[in-house]
Design goal:
By secondary structure, this protein is of the alpha+beta class. The chain has one domain (2-55). It is 13% helix and 25% strand. It is built from one helix and four strands. A four-stranded mixed sheet has the order 2-1-3-4. The protein is globular and about 30 Å long.
Length: 75
């Protein structure tokens, strides 16, 4: 199952304050906020899911062009 790594604050340009983890339906994977994409990827993989990273700042989970798989040995 895929988990989306969303940049925060959501729907805004500018600096990224952290990353949240969500399923495709928008429900939260965890309430934790991760300080880096690498930490978020590690958490998703540790729990046995497949991470998807945002390629754009303002994301849409239905738009496959907005997401990519991380380039890690574990993913």
């Amino acid at each position: 199952m895929d988990v989306y790594i969303e940049p925060l604050p959501r729907g805004q340009w500018g600096p990224i304050d952290g990353y949240s983890l969500e399923f495709a339906d928008g429900s939260r994977f965890t309430s934790d906020i991760f300080r880096s994409e690498l930490l978020a990827i590690s958490e998703v993989i540790l729990r046995g899911y497949k991470p998807l990273l945002a390629k754009v700042r303002i994301t849409d989970k239905q738009a496959t062009a907005h997401w990519k798989r991380p380039e890690t040995a574990n993913a």
